[in-house]
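Sharing a chain and its predicted structure for anyone who wants a worked example. Both blocks are below, sequence first, tokens second.
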Amino acid sequence: MKKLRVLRLFAAAISIILIFCAVSPALAAEYEYEKPDVPAAAFILMEPETGTVLYSENETDRRAPASMTKMMTALLIAEDLDNGRLSEDDVITITQSMFADVSEKSSLKFQVGEEISVIEALSCALIASVNEACNMLAEASAGSVEAFVTRMNAKADALGCRDTHFANAHGLPNDNHYSTAKDMLKIFMAASEKPVITNIEKQATHTVPATNMSDGRTLKTTNRFLLKDSFYYYENALYGKTGYTDAAGYCLASCAEKDSVMLVSVVMGCEGVKNDDGSTTMMNFIAAKRLYEWGFESFGIRTIISTSDLICEIPVTLGDGANSVVLRPDREVKAYMNLSVPLDSIERETELFAEELEAPVEAGDVYGRLTLKYDGETLGDVDLVANSSVSLLHIEFLRHEIKGFFGKTWVKIMFAAVALIIILYIVYLIYVGNKNKKAAEKRRDEYMREQARRKEEAKRTDYFSENRR
């Protein structure tokens, strides 16, 4: 019977091991999620509210940014408008120097001597990606394109764009003109804080009023996401800036919103695929849309910790009716993360400020810190507070205080000193007593000898008296 029982236990253990081995890969798969195939040499997708990067590849590779450069040009002009250096209605008189390094391909046939306002030049740069409009703005702002480019590089450095350098204001090819998807995202985010930029970039078309040398001009955005009659139209797109040169390929910095959630992306180095009808499919829009659709479908705002979650228990001394208290988060933490990730896979790092508490403990008092991490990245941290109060038991407190008092070193030394003094006093008393006793015995002996001598003399006196008679 014993052998049979052992065999059954062994078989059960083997079965459990086999089940675990069979289930483990499936459990592991839950932590992984499919990512889209993005036809871009470099890209980055981010949720801006939390700054969570959802997906990226080669985002720090230096590449030609093409006309996405114009976002930095627009950002500096927006700052000039904010601080009064320029106003929207300021008139720019076009000079020959403003055509020095641009191609006719992007030109709206501006003429030397023509006058255009700052806001209309900015619209030309952002909507139709007009290169000479960037030079107009640069000279109006800084006096020369070179001085303006110096400001562009200084601003890039201030934004933390460590892999970016500008050589012009428009983005045409130059060996010393480069950036990265990550840096372009920083510039895009900074530009997005300027309403004058976003309001322009949201326009699918725009009419530039007639000037002193031209009738009105109609601009059509290069951002095909906004064109309802375009193959690339994307209903969730908000605004963005395109870019293209042979060296850079097709590029796009943009943002989209769905169900009150915004995502931003930058794609660089996308190809143009030739179709049988002779048209070209611009893969920057395909890549960005693929990122957005994947992001909106796979990610969402999730509550990863709430104030009702009980995190840990900590001992309490001198408590009235309780010897411990439970700690909970002081606020909830939300994160934009993949919906398929199990919440129990989020790491919790707990830091307690004390191993043991002493009553009284007040509910809401902070006694620790909780850090939440996933895949090596910190999702948030919160204070840990007492979930309930623990009052002080006064008898225990008194006993504790007395015990603590007598346990102090200086008290022990004092009592030792008093004990020593008492012992010495007792020794002294014994010594004095013994000395007095010996002195008394000596006086008694002397007294007895004196009495004996006197008796002897009395006897002799009586003897002589009797003989004389």
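Comments welcome. Residues 306-391 form a domain with the Peptidoglycan synthesis regulatory factor (PBP3), Domain 2 fold (CATH 2.60.410.10).
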